[in-house]
Design goal:
By secondary structure, the protein is an alpha/beta fold. It contains 9 helices and 12 strands. Belongs to the universal stress protein A family.
């Protein structure tokens, strides 16, 4: 049963008595020692929004003949690692006032249970590739993006101290990019600046007016500063070019659409989503599908 405060849309009131929505965030961590800072980073990210946080401890039960997450663990080692992580998570929850939910199942049932739970939250947070079992993290991200219907933020080692005020959007005019941008508007500063960056090959022609300009006009009407620009890809990949521009512009958040191509094409020839979720980055990335 989900904790009482984990469902989206709870109403609270600010200091002026005006009604506002209390948001709910699910932060997922695994039992590995590398994930110790992920829950704290998730709490830091949620802090500026005043959101309720549930820390979800994700543990795939070892099955004989199948791989374990983390790898090469005996059942005894898994139980010892899980017990230690549970103690750390409950201690953090006691100190911070957040909720805890434990997900323990064989991997397929585990992924399905997390997706069902995630649908009751507004946002899902996941630590960086260095702070989560890599293979389990990839399966979890794909499942959540395609089946939970919620935006996912891939965190860095630490959470921001304020709401994102400078946002770089990977813009290709597609449905996924538009959905991701709409989701990001719920989690950014009320007057955030949005830079819509279209990454194109060096010899690609420019159009006189693009959907990016129309989207910037929409954002401007909502009170945001918004600009569109072209980044030439050169010898770097689309994802690397976009992330490089975001770092150069001191962005607080990067926004991309998830799996704009089929999963088979992403697996065979690569794609922005696949590269971002597999790699390391220094800025938090919001992905939605």
């Amino acid at each position: 049963m989900l904790p009482a405060n984990c469902c989206a849309g709870l109403l609270t009131f600010d200091g002026k008595g005006e009604q506002m929505t209390k948001r709910a965030i699910l932060a997922l961590v695994d039992p590995s020692e590398a994930s110790e800072g992920s829950a704290a980073a998730a709490l830091a990210f949620a802090g500026p929004f005043g959101a309720d946080v549930t820390v979800g401890l994700v543990a795939a039960v070892p099955v004989p003949g199948d791989r374990t997450f983390p790898p090469h663990l005996s059942k005894q080692q898994f139980n010892e690692l899980l017990e230690k992580k549970e103690q750390q998570t409950w201690s953090l929850a006691h100190a911070s006032g957040c909720e805890v939910r434990i997900f323990i199942d064989p991997v397929d049932a585990l992924l399905d249970a997390i997706v069902r739970a995630a649908r009751c939250f507004d946002l899902i947070l996941l630590g960086p590739v260095t702070a989560f079992d890599r293979d389990l993290r990839l399966m979890l991200i794909e499942k959540l993006l395609l089946h939970a219907g919620k935006p996912l933020v891939l965190l860095t080692g630490q959470g921001p101290a304020h709401r994102p005020a400078r946002v770089v959007v990977g813009w290709d005019g597609g449905t996924e990019a538009s959905i991701a941008l709409d989701r990001a508007l719920e989690w950014t500063d009320a007057h955030a600046r949005f830079d819509l960056i279209s990454v194109l090959p060096m010899n690609s022609p420019l159009s006189l007016r693009s959907e990016a300009d129309d989207m910037c006009a929409r954002l401007t009407r909502r009170g945001h500063a918004a600009v569109s620009s072209i980044a030439r890809r050169g010898h770097l990949s689309t994802a690397a070019t976009l992330l490089g521009r975001a770092v150069a512009e001191s962005a607080d958040l990067v926004v991309v659409g998830g799996f704009g191509h089929s999963r088979l094409r992403e697996a065979l020839v690569g794609g922005v989503t696949s590269e971002i979720i597999r790699g390391e980055h220094t800025l938090p990335v919001l992905i939605a599908h």
